[in-house]
Design goal:
The longest helix is centred in the middle third of the chain and has 20 residues. Helix 8 crosses helix 11 and helix 14 packs antiparallel against helix 15. The strands form 6 sheets. Strands 9, 10, 14, 15, 18 and 19 form a 6-stranded antiparallel beta sheet that branches. Strands 4-11-12-13 form a 4-stranded antiparallel beta sheet. The chain is globular. It is an alpha+beta fold. The protein starts with a strand and ends with a strand.
């Protein structure tokens, strides 16, 4: 047993660290006739003697029985059977997907582990650099924006554990806001055990307030994907959302000249610029957070402060109508170098509606300005943007750049292209996995359902997702140029409302039933590429014409779909656009059916 060398906060406790291990001999020797041999050594680290001893005893029993490796392999096989992401495409891409998902899942709490306390996900995961590259295991926005969406779609229990870390550190976030002179909560740029700011450089802790927006966005996605009201009503989730809303309202300033709320003196994700006014990324997150806070308050039967929606409605969102793009902040000029993905995060992963031309202009302007020395996750968001715009070749170019930082032979990621920075860089993996999971498929989690608008980038002919989780259901989703297949593998219980898919052009609704025939069948209209929606054991899929894989609008116009008998589904409210029409009008939505 030992203690940490330095307390997190001056005068604070030095935490206990307990370690148990089996001794490693000074030399390992092969016998004269042996060509290979296997040795097993155990190391267990825990926060208490009881925790460490329990894990060590379990591992020792498996080792003595000769089943340690077999138990390990069996556990992974069970996980891969219900959770996976694969493509028909280049082997390096397939290996990168598998390796990234493996490392991300390895850093998560084991599903169903009793009494486990999650301490968040650090950019370096379980690794630790020798020259302080791995951020000391601290938690950043990387967890909430870059890693969380993939965790949520595959392991919602682990996603909840990550949110519980933010709930447990709310007191520290409240203290951070007080020290900066504001109300509500300001989550630490670098967070450890208490949630109080531990970043060694004050400028980041004071100015990178966009971390708050990423935290609440994670809560928003979780709420829509799980409908776990208990987390918000009883377990502290509402307290986090409300406290961040209060911070935003105290942090903005009203400009009587422009008749807008402004957010001054911030650092956007682009850390090459500090002390700027009206970071468009940050301000859009403020808008999104406040609208979600108001909607959640109504769902929970709580009053909605009028200031929340007033700030959301009137906060400045920088836009240059002449050049049709969003300046990164007030005074930004195209060509100024930026460190990493910033404005291109608008649209995805940050919900924000753009015209196709504006989305394209943002991508082109910031592609030319983004530093090639920046961190690995950046290019994945360019790939998502080009997939939204249905440009498979440019999407493929950025997809390949997004996993160029992998080192052989174990597919270990470095933060930067030159091999420097955090190792093994989970943030880069998180961005890359989102490019595949939400880029290829077009998955978008909304308050009314999961929309999808799939496309295959160049070089990929088919995609399969196993174990997608949505409101207690577990789904398999696959598509190619010719079809889309959704299979319901499990439902939360006999009383759960059934899922159905809706094709948006004709409002055709297809019930999705596990373990049986579809509730309704339909004669296939002969076409170039059908859409297939089926139950797990259905002998005959439901075939709907209407998906070609590249230009859904052209296909919609060319081939009308035959209507099913009318059923009702929670409809998606038209999303307001900031400039022009939305960049993406997904052609299919997955949601719950409702009584007629």
């Amino acid at each position: 047993m030992a203690h940490t060398l330095t307390p997190e906060q001056p005068g604070g406790p030095q935490l206990e660290v307990h370690m148990l291990w089996t001794p490693v001999p000074p030399a390992l020797t092969l016998g004269e006739s042996e060509e290979d041999q296997t040795w097993e050594f155990l190391t267990v680290v825990g926060g208490s003697q009881a925790e460490a001893q329990l894990c060590f005893t379990e591992a020792l029993q498996l080792q003595v029985g000769g089943t340690l490796y077999a138990a390990h392999a069996r556990a992974w096989a069970q996980l891969w059977a219900t959770c996976g992401l694969d493509v028909v495409g280049p082997l390096p891409l397939r290996q990168a997907l598998r390796g990234s998902l493996y490392y991300l899942v390895s850093a998560l709490p084991q599903p169903g582990a009793p009494g486990y306390t999650c301490h968040g996900l650090s950019p370096g995961g379980l690794s630790n650099g020798s020259r302080e590259e791995c951020y000391w295991g601290h938690v950043f926005w990387d967890q909430d924006l870059w890693m969380f969406p993939t965790v949520l779609l595959f392991q919602p229990e682990a996603a909840r554990a990550l949110l519980e870390y933010r709930i447990r550190t709310l007191d520290g976030a409240l203290d951070n806001a007080r020290k900066l002179g504001y109300q509500g909560a300001k989550f630490a740029w670098e967070s450890a055990g208490s949630g109080r700011e531990v970043c060694p450089e004050d400028v980041y802790g004071a100015q990178e307030i966009h971390v708050n927006g990423a935290v609440v966005l994670a809560f928003q996605l979780y709420y829509h994907a799980t409908q776990d009201v208990q987390l918000f009503r009883e377990a502290g989730g509402w307290d986090v959302v409300r406290a961040v809303a209060e911070f935003w309202c105290s942090r903005v300033e009203w400009s009587p000249e422009e008749e807008e709320y402004q957010l001054k003196g911030v650092m956007p994700p682009d850390e090459y610029h500090s002390g700027v006014d009206n970071s468009v990324y940050t301000n859009v997150l403020v808008q999104n957070n406040l609208r979600f806070a108001a909607a959640l308050a109504r769902d929970l039967g709580r009053p909605v402060p009028t200031e929340w929606l007033a700030v959301a409605e009137k906060i400045k969102v920088p836009f240059d109508p002449r050049q049709d793009f969003h300046p990164e902040f007030d005074g930004y000029q195209p060509g100024e170098e930026v460190k990493q993905a910033d404005v291109v995060l608008l649209g995805y992963p940050v919900p924000f509606h753009l015209s196709p031309h504006t989305r394209r202009r943002n991508l082109e302007i910031y592609e030319a300005a983004t530093s090639p020395r920046g961190p690995a996750m950046t290019w994945s968001m360019f790939a998502v943007g080009w997939m939204e715009l249905k440009d498979p070749r440019r999407a493929q170019d950025f997809l390949e750049r997004s996993f160029a930082n992998i080192a052989e032979p174990f597919k270990v990621w470095t933060e930067n292209a030159d091999g420097s920075g955090a190792v093994n860089f989970l943030t880069g993996m998180g961005g890359f996995l989102q490019a595949a999971l939400c880029g290829f498929t077009g998955f978008r989690i909304t308050g009314a359902g999961v929309t999808f608008d799939p496309m295959c980038p160049a070089g990929v002919s088919a995609v399969r997702v196993r174990g997608l989780c949505y409101q207690g259901n577990r789904l398999d989703f696959s598509f190619s140029e010719g079809s889309v297949t959704i299979e319901v593998k499990a439902q939360p219980g006999p009383g759960a409302p059934p899922l159905e898919a809706e094709l948006w052009l004709t409002h055709t609704r297809v019930p999705l039933l596990p373990g049986g025939q579809p509730a309704q069948t339909h004669r296939s209209i002969q076409s170039r590429c059908p859409l297939s929606l089926q139950g797990t054991e259905s002998p005959s899929p439901i075939l709907l014409d209407g998906y070609r894989g590249h230009s859904r609008l052209e296909q919609r116009q060319q081939v009308p779909l035959q209507e099913f008998p009318k059923r009702t589904l929670r409809t998606l409210d038209p999303c307001p656009t900031t400039h022009g029409t939305p960049v993406s009008s997904p052609w299919c939505c997955l949601g719950h059916s409702a009584p007629a």
